[in-house]
Design a protein that fits this description.
8 strands; binds iron/sulfur cluster; alpha/beta; DUF1722; 4-stranded parallel β-sheet; 13% strand; 3 domains; 316 residues; DUF1722 domain-containing protein; 2-thiour_desulf; 49% helix; UCP037004
Length: 316
């Protein structure tokens, strides 16, 4: 299993001149910051499926409940070209052990959410997922996928970074075989992180683990993965993070004096109102967790991310 976190990326974002007009769409955050901590697997689906450079622009068109990939001016239908190629290569992507994918916004092939989908009736285009990204999500529904613009929003970036590190740890866990004891340990260390995304999902995961036995290990692992990564898709907002910080503070109730308590509360409020980054109250609570020897808190990835994760979360 690869030591590094592997992230697929639309090749044009990595600076490769693969767009229809030989241009790129270089994103400096990706190549100057994220690239220090992850390994990129660049991919241009349009080139890889056999379209050359330069080439005609494409658009997605909804025809009779299916989405077709159509040449912008010629009207040529390239749906089968892309579909046949993707059906061939997507199973191979599993070997790359990707932990996430960063795609170009609005591209008819790579976009997420904001790619235009035209109608044959002349109605204004809808917005949706690009053609390749749709196939990618069908093949790997748990894979964190984000567009490069979302990475410039601090909360969405933090969300993506957290998810790729969780997926990496999940891959490491499952590479060792399926052991309920190890799954419970994995869950315990992620409890606060999951709560910050989805309290309901957190409770369902706990309930699921309560039903585990040696006879249903595979089902439990499969259901756990689906529930976990669907929970993490929900945004960890400032309010939800603050609730988790206050919950963590409850562990020190009997240890810290009124002055320290007020300092923590002020910091949580400052974070909740957007005045300081999450890492400030997290660092303070982590300090208290060590000072007062709270093993449950010390092992929480929410308070104590890995060094690479911490550095990425720290980047502006
Ligand atoms: S958006 Fe996707 S298909 Fe378009 S040039 Fe970039 S990598 Fe290629």
């Amino acid at each position: 299993m690869s030591e590094t976190i592997r992230i697929g990326v639309s090749a044009c974002l990595a600076g490769e001149k693969v767009r229809y007009d030989r241009s790129h769409h270089h994103d400096r955050y990706l190549t100057k910051i994220l690239a220090k901590y992850v390994e990129f697997i660049p991919l241009c689906p349009e080139i890889a499926c056999g379209m050359g450079i330069p080439r005609e622009k494409l658009r997605q068109v909804e025809c009779a409940d299916t989405i077709r990939l159509i040449g912008y001016e010629s009207g040529d239908d390239l749906t089968e070209t892309m579909t046949q190629w993707a059906d061939r290569v997507l199973p191979g992507l599993d070997d790359e052990e990707l932990c996430g994918f960063v795609v170009k916004p609005e591209s008819p092939s790579c976009g997420v959410k904001r790619a235009k989908i035209y109608s044959t009736t002349g109605a204004p285009p809808k917005r949706g997922m690009g053609f390749f990204t749709t196939m990618l999500t069908q093949h790997a529904p748990l894979l964190p996928i984000v567009n490069s613009e979302q990475l410039h929003n601090p909360l969405l970036r933090e969300n993506f970074i957290r998810r790729i590190f969780v997926l990496k740890r999940w891959r490491e866990l499952t590479a060792l075989g399926k052991d309920i004891g190890k799954l419970v340990d994995f869950h315990t260390r992620h409890k606060m992180l999951i709560r910050a995304h989805d309290l309901k999902g957190y409770r369902e995961l706990g309930k699921l683990l309560g039903q585990s036995s040696q006879s249903n290990v595979k089902e439990i692992f499969d259901q756990y993965a689906t529930l976990l990564f669907n929970s993490l898709k929900l945004q960890a907002t400032q309010k939800k993070n603050s609730d988790v910080l206050q919950h963590a503070m409850g562990y020190f109730k009997k240890n810290i004096d009124a002055k320290d308590k007020q300092e923590v509360l002020d910091m949580i409020t400052a974070y909740r109102t957007g005045k300081i980054p999450l890492l400030m109250p997290v660092t303070l609570l982590n300090h208290f967790a060590r000072k007062y020897q709270k093993p449950y808190l010390i092992q929480q990835y929410f308070l104590n991310p890995s060094p690479a994760e911490l550095q990425l979360l720290n980047q502006v």
